[in-house]
Specification:
6-stranded mixed beta sheet, binds manganese (II) ion, 308 residues
């Protein structure tokens, strides 16, 4: 069984950008990356699609965005079943947002065990506390499962300059919170791609489908393809995307290509670095921007870093 595992598409995420052409929207790029990730599914090349949460960037996505998303997922669901759990950015009741889920689209708002052929998946929506996760995961596994689906950091996950530990930040789980049974987990929540061993389980995070934080630079983004059979294997697949650099000093601008996103993190020399970045054709995020948000503003979303 071939499974396409994507996560953290953050649909509707927007950026104030100075230098981008009129009509450009970061939200469109998030949508395009999700659509690209789903191409193998739309071609009928996979048996199952799993989205591990943070489908949307905000808890109140616009009707237009919900319609677009429902239309895309409906198209995919005609080729392969789709499983979706809410992440911490999503509306907690995703099913209510879509109102009606089409045949083949499994929106899992509560801990649920799903079966596809021989494969049993324990799907666990995002939980704020480790105790909450532990209870929900045990409930989802029920009589047994091969695979855990979660939107949760686990001890040992890494983002630049930070390693997650149990309860730090809150909701980060350790091996002691895992239900017995599954040997594999499909993860969401961490935006840099990584695989982490947690006790008996290997947790695979394909990461966000497009870059969400300055400082990711040209880090690879994409999704994961799993093969479940007698043997289990997975691999990351790259998607194209716009580099997103952080600029602290003039040297950081060297070798920069045009049209890439930069965030300037230097208050003292902000103006000088801004002009230099613009002269090189870079698009500067943040101060001095003109683009109005298309989506309702979620302050937590704006404050999001890599592990959002
Ligand atoms: Mn996320």
């Amino acid at each position: 069984m071939r499974i396409l595992h994507l996560t953290d598409t953050h649909l509707g995420a927007w950026l104030r950008v100075h230098g981008a052409p009129e009509g450009w929207s970061r939200a469109d790029e998030h949508a395009a990356s999700m659509e690209r990730a789903l191409i193998p599914a739309l071609r009928g090349e996979v048996d199952l699609v799993v989205h591990a949460g943070d489908l949307f960037d905000v808890r109140t996505p616009s009707r237009k965005l919900v319609r677009w998303t429902a239309e895309l997922l409906t198209r995919v669901a005609t080729r392969a079943p789709v499983v979706l759990i809410p992440g911490n950015h999503d509306p907690a009741a995703l099913l209510r947002v879509f109102r009606l889920a089409p045949q083949g689209l499994h929106i899992v708002d509560a801990p649920t065990r799903l079966r596809f052929g021989d494969l049993a998946i324990a799907a666990v929506p995002f939980k704020r506390s480790v105790d909450g996760f532990q209870r929900a995961a045990a409930q989802a596994v029920g009589p047994g499962a091969d695979l855990l689906l979660l939107h949760q950091a686990v001890s040992g996950c890494r983002v630049p300059r930070f390693t997650f530990r149990v309860g730090r930040p809150a909701g980060t789980i350790g091996p002691e919170h895992l239900p017995g049974g599954p040997r594999w987990a499909m993860g969401g929540h961490l935006h840099p791609r990584q695989a982490v061993r947690l006790g008996p389980i290997e947790v695979v995070y394909p990461g966000a489908t497009t870059r969400t934080a300055a400082g990711e630079g040209s880090a690879s983004k994409g999704y994961a393809l799993w093969e479940f059979g007698r043997d289990v294997s997975w691999r990351f697949v790259d998607l194209p995307g716009r580099p997103f650099a952080i600029v602290r000093q003039a040297e950081d601008l060297e070798g920069m290509s045009a049209d890439q996103l930069v965030r300037i993190a230097n208050n003292e020399h902000y103006a000088e670095l801004f002009h230099e970045a613009r002269a090189r054709g870079a698009w500067v995020v943040g101060r001095g921007a003109r683009e109005a948000p298309r989506e309702p503003v979620d302050r937590r979303a704006q404050l999001r870093l890599f592990g959002g």
